Amino acid sequence: MILRKLLVATSIVAISAGAANALDVSTGATPVTPALELQLPGTPAFTGTTTATLMTETGNFPAGNNISIVLTLPTGVVFNAPVSGSNVTLPGGGTGASAVVQSGGATGDGSVTFLVSIGDSASIDELDFAFDYRLNSCVPAGSELVITANIDGSNTPIEEGTASDDSVIAPCASALNGEVRSDTSNPAVTAQDGDTVVTLASGYTLIGGAGTAGTTTATVGDVAYTIDPAVSIDGTGAPMTDASIDGISFDVVLGDGTGVTDVTVGGVSGTPNAANNTFSFDFAPGVIVDPAAPLPIQVEVNAGVAPADLELILTQNVSVQNAVVDFNDSEADLVASEPGANGGLDTLQREGQTFGVYDWNSGSPSGTISVYRVTGLPAGPTAYTVIMTNAGVANGTYNGIATPNANGEFVVNSLNYGISSLPTYVRGDAEFIFETNNDVDVDRLMARNGIVSAFGDGSNEDSVLGNDPRVDDDN
């Protein structure tokens, strides 16, 4: 090959005149999206072949010149085979240019510099590149294939000198996606909006989807996993399949399992662990991945229990936790496992009246504390629940017993509230649920240095079922 230097000054002038114009590079392909579940660089490796065409906007590459072209792969992508001058060709196998590698281009390199010689009388407006690549790590967003072209020796850019394209490899994405919902969308299950209510009447049964009382089973949400067909586990664009997945496991976690006789997912009973208040599940991919409809999660209470043995169902949160997806790497080098879909389900809420949300402040006795005066309770003990939010590690559901005094009053304060599990120093938002249909009222007061001052009137209207909490009841 004859290496040509810049022959006349007029050639430089002609190239510079096009500096406002831009080189263009195109691969003519849709980028492959690798799976986040891949163990990169992996064995076997995620490999592929791509082409790129470098074009001028104004016409031809300058004849009679040597052009230095640097091709840089996106971050995380390297050459999977050595690159040589034969990797640069003209469209349709034309002639008039030849190339050699000046530097880089070895297997594992991320860039290569070519010296391309354009013949004196050649009219060339495109250069084609072809190469094998390997993915070593996920490509960061915005990282592209970049090609620069300059006159060798003078560093005069061809047009603007740089072109880029993002269609070689896209950033990684999850091939398997799971979702836990608190209201099922399965058309075969009665729609259920809001919390599942536990009746106060004898039997402690559930009020189900359409508000029908007396059932022992209610749907508290659903779960489903789907495979994204646009995400690939190899360089050919092949998607993940069920064969790539060994299984999906998770726990349905109750706040208190007392009285809960079964939890099912898609009609399959879980394995109970009374000590942890959990029901565990382990599904094959063919059941839970890409189902015709999400699998409903249902809670059964006091089913088949004699009236004398019925157990109280406490107000509590229900959630899916500890979800794990195990993979089979026989199809591709996948990670051994990844976290699955976790999330909250419907709350099991005892029938009664709800008050709040209130600010809750607790500190030393000489500091400012919250005081709540409750009136209208029935004689004798009444179960109640405090739901704490925006309280950091104290977030949760806490159960207590309210016993009114001789005047029919019960006082809760944020230092001495009779719920030992709630931390003594908390700042957050508190919602009260009193499990009675009596005409209950709650007033929020404040105490500082032992002096009590009024801070709000009645909370909300009387209701057999819990009312929706207000944004702030401190008015």
Task: Give the SSE layout.
Layout: H1 9-17, E1 24-26, E2 33-34, E3 46-55, E4 66-72, E5 77-79, E6 88-89, E7 97-104, E8 111-118, E9 126-135, E10 145-151, E11 157-165, E12 176-181, E13 196-198, E14 206-207, E15 217-227, E16 231-232, E17 245-254, E18 260-265, E19 268-269, E20 271-273, E21 278-283, H2 285-288, E22 295-301, E23 318-327, E24 337-339, E25 343-344, E26 348-350, E27 353-361, E28 368-375, E29 382-389, E30 396-402, E31 409-413, E32 427-434, E33 441-448, E34 451-454
Parallel strand pairs: 2-16, 13-26
Antiparallel strand pairs: 1-3, 3-9, 4-8, 4-10, 5-9, 6-9, 7-8, 10-11, 12-15, 13-14, 15-22, 17-21, 17-23, 18-19, 18-22, 20-21, 23-24, 23-25, 27-32, 28-31, 28-33, 29-30, 29-32, 33-34
Describe this structure in words.
This protein has two helices and 34 strands. Strands 17, 20, 21, 23, 24 and 25 form a six-stranded antiparallel β-sheet that branches. The model is unreliable at 1-20, 207-213 and 457-475 (pLDDT under 50). The chain has three domains: 9-165, Sandwich (Immunoglobulin-like), CATH 2.60.40; 176-349, Immunoglobulin-like, CATH 2.60.40; 352-454. It is elongated and about 110 Å long. Strand 10 (145-151) and strand 11 form a beta hairpin. It has 475 residues and is mainly beta. The N and C termini lie far apart (88 Å). Helix content is 3%, strand content 43%.
